[in-house]
């Protein structure tokens, strides 16, 4: 890759620090494999294209990830890609510059009894921003404010966020699904939110199993009438919701099916039969 | 300050990098003085309160700034304050943690003939976000997109940004003022934008000189009918606008008065009389 100057060290002029000028991926390495590598790389590539950040080629990045996590059989990997270093007053650096950082965090599989979430509807609203909607970018202050709100509520596992028009978007660190009247619903991410890899896997799985999936703008009232609902991301997998504030839910059959299909701790266990 | 744990080093878990979870100030040190120190510190303090980031006391910070810029008589100083290090998945660090970084950049006074700006109306829109509006926070991706747009246009000094409702907000790195029908107008920063220190100085100065200042939501059409207009920030001071796309403007008497009053290169010259 002669044309791309990749910075791999933290620098005081790092644009990720100064402007949040970049993207990230959070991936699971499980028993030596990164099961969703292709999906993560494709999302990163698409995000870099939208933000016009040059991206290293896939093999280079996969080698870096393998090298920097080689001491861990199972771990949570965070990849940060930015527009590199430099430029006071938002002046752009040369177009062939980027930074790529790979970090790792301990992975602990959730115990079955900790899987279901107690969540709260957040007062914090996500701004409507078509330019950045869907991207897993580094500008996460709105989510930090939601995390502060959740911390002040105490003992909540997750929060559900609406946009400034009052429509459901997602959780603080996961996407949202709810089932009612024979169809699964998930909020559109056209105006705000992050296009989750696990969300895509779930939509794809449900459609292949002839369960209709609707993607749109939904009010919180619809969610409160759901028969079952869950949140998901690519590290924790599927997490049924057991309560939204004072309203309780049971883990329904579709949520359970998806838990069995997607949860890494379930997947990594020896099969029960055969 | 026994209760506050201040990090002064770059760390891989720095929340400024991971989430843009912090604020910054850009200040001018001129001939050994920081003329607007109090205003910058007060804005930083207010921003930290809104984001619930603990801030070092003023003397500690001023000593750090003095120490780290002691080799420069005139320089541009950037102070970055964040919520410190740590927390995967947006988990908050201990409440008494923060990072404070002080960086410096070369200051060059603008030549008179380079002062007036050739600007463009940007297509990039700023999202409406009351939670973050006004703050000089580290989530600057919208402005990076605007800077990319400007770069693609070529040779523009600045861009004017509207919010997603189509109302004027500010420039990419400065605030905006325009004069028409006997009053000065500047966009409100209640929905988007940065509450500039120089903007406050200008509003204060104009009101003390009995020039009415209106702060509100204005359409770009009003700006195009202005008799004079300028942009400002605390490093460059007042910069008259000489053109917005194909429309030309002259540097009017009020803009000139403000240039004389506020521009550091003018201020630092020996007085013309007495």
In short:
Chain A has helices spanning 15-19, 37-51, 58-68, 141-153, 197-208, 220-224, 253-262, 264-267; strands spanning 5-7, 22-29, 75-82, 97-105, 117-126, 158-163, 168-171, 175-180, 183-187, 213-216, 228-233, 237-244, 247-248. Chain A is α/β, with parallel strands linked by helices.
Characterization of the model:
- The structure is a homodimer of 274-residue chains.
- Chain A is α/β, with parallel strands linked by helices and 274 residues long.
- The first copy, chain A, has 8 helices and 13 strands.
- Chain A has helices spanning 15-19, 37-51, 58-68, 141-153, 197-208, 220-224, 253-262, 264-267, and strands at residues 5-7, 22-29, 75-82, 97-105, 117-126, 158-163, 168-171, 175-180, 183-187, 213-216, 228-233, 237-244, 247-248.
- In chain A, strand 5 (117-126), helix 4 and strand 6 (158-163) form a beta-alpha-beta unit.
- The termini of chain A are far apart.
- The model of chain A has no long low-confidence stretch (mean pLDDT 94).
- At the A-B interface, helix 1, strand 3, strand 4 and helix 4 of A face helix 1, strand 3, strand 4 and helix 4 of B.
Kindly list the characteristics that best describe this protein.
homodimer, 274 residues, alpha/beta, 9-stranded mixed sheet, 4-stranded mixed sheet, 8 helices, 27% helix, globular
